[in-house]
Specification:
The protein is α/β, with parallel strands linked by helices. The chain contains 15 helices and 18 strands. The strands form four sheets. The chain has an eight-stranded mixed β-sheet, sandwiched between helices. α4 links the parallel β4 and β5.
């Protein structure tokens, strides 16, 4: 169980959750003294607004506002730190149990490996039927830990070990490919990581859900795991490197998604591929204008060594396509252009499969984990032309960077294979309810629901 949850229902205090529309009804139900206290204190039930209810024994309960939306997990995100440390609570009133538990757990999260937290969160008694929300919270918090860990403590080996640990927990088979086998089977991944003393590797997890036979749909997940990105010989400015420990955020997202699917016992076959590398500067680093091989057989001219994430993903996508999956999903902190277009909170979705895109977008809205679709505009394909190789890894035009990156990846996926690419930020620039500053897992809950809806024909697993 997560540390912010408790089984102490007998001693837990009532936490009355109320929307603005439901405030008058709550005031009528509360004891007159407590209702008078709330009125006198000016309580209006705005989101994150909290009042402790006094009584003869000290605190007898609390009231928290939800604003207009009881279904949003973010409406509950401030509560673990707004309520007194060490207190335990049970939900009353208008709370929606799943979003409440999810928001509570995500709001309680703190990265504590190197510094003890200033206080412990209040703890919640989770209502029955919230096991999915708890599993999602656990996966997201583990993913946040991976992103928040400094690159000096999380390199390619440690990231691959995180996949090993996840596999051991869920009875999955995990293989880590490195050395000569990596150079032969994943040549682009090997090239990206060749400049670092921390050798690159690909972690491959295979899992079969309970009740899933050999013909069960195969879902392939591919994650960019660049544990630190200097930009390579096309060196980033110092300021642009400050958050580059998060450049494995796509891998962390796919690891979290894999955990959600396995924890749910989905009747699918699952393939998780994580390309774990460091893009470093050294005498062995790959160079601008090098021509490299890829698993698919296409040659790529290096127009910029800082466009390394698409090189990692292209080998993973080629391997995934070879396994005849029913669906391929990839995630990466791929381009700044996607952030310019959509900001930090909206991951960019690319897919030319209308059903896949529509389902992911709808599921994202349903669970308050939204994405926004950008086009795979085929007129820009020629922008990746090269005079010396099958394609370049960048365009010389300073426009549509996220679209061009997605079009590069599209070259490595068969046209008839359902595929979606997610370009995300994986970071919260400032602390907000449920989203403390630092690493974050975006789109995983939306993708988890979409996998179920697309392959198992259920909209609400």
């Amino acid at each position: 169980m997560l540390d912010c949850l408790t089984t102490g229902a007998a001693t837990a205090l009532p936490l009355h959750l109320v929307t603005r529309a439901g405030l008058d009804g709550l005031l009528e139900r509360l004891p007159p003294a407590q209702a008078a206290f709330l009125r006198a204190s000016g309580f209006t039930a705005r989101a994150q607004e909290v009042r402790l209810l006094p009584g003869g024994a000290g605190i007898e309960g609390a009231v928290a506002g939800l604003g207009e939306d009881a279904a949003s997990p973010w409406a509950y995100g401030a509560l673990p730190m707004a309520l007194p440390e060490g207190t335990e609570w049970r939900l009353e009133g208008e709370a929606e149990a799943g979003p409440a538990v999810l928001g509570w757990c995500l709001g309680a999260y703190r990265y504590t490996r190197f510094k003890a937290p200033s206080r412990q969160p209040a703890r919640l008694v989770p209502p029955t039927g919230t096991e999915t929300a708890q599993a999602e919270a656990r996966a997201i918090c583990r993913g946040r830990d991976l992103i928040n860990t400094p690159a000096g403590h999380l390199g390619p080996e440690e990231l691959a070990n995180a996949v090993r640990d996840l596999g051991a927990e869920h009875g999955a088979d995990v293989e880590v490919i490195e050395g000569a086998a990596l150079a032969e089977g994943f040549p682009a991944v090997a090239v990206v990581g060749q400049g670092s003393p921390r050798s690159p590797r690909v972690a491959v997890l295979r899992w079969q859900g309970p009740g899933a036979g050999p013909d069960a749909p195969l879902v392939a997940l591919c994650g960019k795991g660049v544990c630190f990105d200097t930009g390579g010989l096309d060196l980033k400015p110092a300021a642009a490197m400050l958050r580059m420990k998060k450049d494995m955020g796509g891998a962390a997202t796919m690891i979290a998604l894999a955990e959600m699917l396995m924890a749910s016992g989905a009747p699918i076959r699952l393939l998780l591929l994580v390309g774990a590398v460091e893009n470093a500067v050294s005498g062995t680093a790959f160079r601008p204008m090098d021509v490299i091989a890829t698993r698919k057989g296409l040659t790529v001219e290096i127009g910029n060594t800082d466009a390394e994430g698409r090189l990692v993903l292209c080998d993973l996508l080629a391997f995934a396509a070879e396994q005849s999956p029913a669906l391929v999903l990839d995630a990466a902190t791929l381009t700044g252009a996607a952030r310019v277009a959509l900001g930090p909170d909206l991951p960019a979705l690319f897919s030319d499969d209308a059903e896949v895109a529509k389902t992911i977008l709808r599921c994202g809205l349903d669970v308050q984990d939204p994405l926004w679709q950008l086009p795979l505009h085929r007129s820009y394909v020629s922008w990746l032309d090269s005079n010396v190789a099958d394609l370049n890894n960048v365009s010389t035009k300073p426009m549509a960077g996220a679209v061009v990156a997605a079009l590069f990846l599209r070259r490595f996926v068969p046209d008839d294979l359902p595929w979606a690419h997610v370009d995300l930020y994986a970071w919260s620039d400032q602390t907000r309810p449920g989203r403390p500053e630092g690493g974050d897992i975006q789109a995983a809950r939306a993708l988890s629901r979409a996998v179920t809806a697309l392959l198992l024909h259920r909209d609400n697993p």
